[in-house]
Amino acid sequence: MHIFYHPDYDIPVPSTHRFVGPKFSDLYNHLQTQPFASKLKVGQPTPAPIERIIRAHTSSYVKKVSQDTLSKADLRLINLPWSERLRNRSFLAIEGTYLTAIQALQSGIACHVGGGTHHAHRDHGLGFCVFNDLGYTAKNLIAEGHVEKVLILDLDVHQGDGTIDICQGDPYIFTCSIHSESNFPFEKKQGWMDIGLPAGTKDQAYLEILSQTLDSIQSSLTPDLILFDAGIDVYTNDGLGNLELSIEGIRKRDQLVFQHFRGRGIPVATVIGGGYSQDRQELASRHSLIFESAINYL
Ligand SMILES: [Zn+2]
Predict the structure, then answer these.
(1) What is the 273 CA–ligand 1 centroid distance (Å)?
(2) First and final CA of the chain: distance in angstroms?
(3) What's the CA gap between 213 and 219, in Å, rounded?
(4) For the chain: N or C, fewer Cβ within 10 A?
(5) How far is the CA of 275 from the centre of ligand 1 (A)?
(6) 242-to-26, 58, 195, 263 alpha-carbon distances in Å
(7) Distance, CA 230 to ligand 1 centroid (Å)?
(8) How many angstroms is it from 185 CA to the middle of ligand 1?
(9) pLDDT digits (tens, 9 = 90+) for 70-98
(10) Helix, strand, coil shares of the chain as percentages rounded to 5?
(11) Is 176 helix (H, G, I), strand (E, B) or coil?
């Protein structure tokens, strides 16, 4: 199975920061152990070119990021300490999701060891997200004629408000989000399909709603590609999310998504999302669930 990763993905943050800065290399190192290592082929992105980023973001925002001129207010929204590394990895990670999607179009499934920066809006960053990899990928795939219609399936516990902001009004990009009604962002946006769940929702109820949602998508849409944000902050012990899925519940969720869309012959590109924990090993292992499900499906 093809995965995409860059050694510069980690984000420098103080160890007390809520965001686990080294989670990308932690996950990648975890994927270097068995049963993963022998089954994975790794690709590496180069930085996304500005002329393609402006399909998803305003040129003034892209300029501020590339020239390190974000204001204090801009940085407060992003809520990560600004650094050259953060700037550079922001250009790499969106391209990583794009390459993952291109690969999925060829091989059916591909997974990104990054991405899921779904709070980044057209003209500003937000909530640990600088550029929006999902919006960037969908917009560019369509503009370049690789696909006609993209479904962004966002199962992170938080609504991908930035993705909705970027994709709103685009007749070829469909957003579907299942999230906690009472988690950030507190003002939800209206995408193509949005399901807000009550805090404390557990495996069985969650999986039933997901299954109904997939059926409902099927009755109205046949996309050429799924961009799947396999957020793991739906986990019961997550530091930020307030849903109560078990590890087995997340596994079943991911399997359901693969079975449904691959069963319909639709390629699925996955990105990691969410995931907050003091225990870095636990977090890496939780992020590896989507890779495990993808390998098992293949
Ligand atoms: Zn999240």
Answers:
(1) 6
(2) 8
(3) 10
(4) C
(5) 7
(6) 24, 33, 15, 31
(7) 10
(8) 10
(9) 999 999 999 999 999 999 999 999 999 99
(10) 40, 15, 40
(11) strand
